[in-house]
């Protein structure tokens, strides 16, 4: 009788330990998933902030260079893409287009010394550079969270728990043209 009791206790102990492991793994995966979602939210907040600065920048430059309609249309289109991007892949494409559009508008601005001396333009440039730095930091934080989450999901035996509860790996925020975003838009005075 004592032999079967020991067997039952060992089996019960193993089941309890397995349950604790599944519980702890599930909770850590949920925590990591929430961190990734939070980091993505930070990126979208900063991209929205930049998108909100763009119309003011365009209007300021338009006052000096009204004939540069193609540049303004490209910036407006890139802004719309950025706002509507819902996934990291879409955001990567939108980010590339936004960087190209911003380079164009700053190239136009270089041709107008009075514009470069405008306090409003200088303030908008400063805010834009600050926002670009925040986007870059948010992107690094997001990718770090995705790396941690994806690694946890793919490690054995975590992958069994992740599959059991439907956890899926997340996309990194990668930019198509790394050279286009390797540094924030240049501002020359």
Q: Indicate the percent of residues in helices.
A: over 70%
Low-pLDDT regions: none
Question: Helix count?
Answer: 7
Query: Could you tell me the radius of gyration in angstroms?
Result: 25 Å
Describe the protein in words.
- It is a single chain.
- With 189 residues, the protein is an all-alpha fold.
- The chain has one domain (2-181): de novo design (two linked rop proteins) (Up-down Bundle), CATH 1.20.1440.
- 81% of the residues lie in helices and 0% in strands.
- The longest helix is centred in the N-terminal third of the chain and has 61 residues, at 2-62.
- The radius of gyration is 25 Å and the shape is rod-shaped.
- The termini are far apart.
Write the layout of secondary structure elements.
Blueprint (H helix, E strand, L loop, with lengths): L1 H61 L6 H16 L3 H23 L2 H5 L1 H36 L3 H8 L12 H4 L8
Task: Provide a concise account of the structure shown.
The chain is mostly helical and 189 residues long. The chain has helices at 2-62, 69-84, 88-110, 113-117, 119-154, 158-165, 178-181.
Key attributes of the depicted protein:
de novo design (two linked rop proteins); mainly alpha; 189 residues; 7 helices
């Amino acid at each position: 009788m004592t032999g079967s009791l020991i067997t039952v206790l060992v089996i019960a102990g193993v089941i309890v330990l397995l349950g604790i492991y599944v519980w702890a793994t599930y909770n850590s995966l949920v925590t990591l998933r929430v961190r990734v979602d939070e980091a993505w939210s930070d990126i979208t907040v900063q991209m929205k902030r930049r998108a909100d600065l763009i119309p003011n920048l365009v209007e300021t430059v338009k006052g000096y260079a009204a004939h540069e309609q193609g540049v303004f249309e490209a910036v407006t289109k890139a802004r719309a893409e950025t706002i509507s991007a819902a996934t990291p892949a879409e955001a990567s494409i939108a980010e590339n287009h936004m960087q190209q559009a911003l380079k164009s508008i700053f190239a136009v601005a270089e041709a107008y010394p009075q514009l470069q001396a405008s306090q409003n333009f200088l303030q908008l440039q400063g805010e834009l550079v600050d926002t670009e730095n925040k986007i870059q930091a948010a992107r690094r934080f997001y990718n770090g969270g995705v790396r941690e989450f994806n690694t946890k999901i793919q490690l054995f035996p975590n992958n069994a728990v992740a599959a059991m509860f439907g956890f899926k790996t997340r996309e990194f925020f990668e930019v198509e043209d790394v050279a286009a975003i390797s540094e924030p838009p240049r501002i020359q005075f």
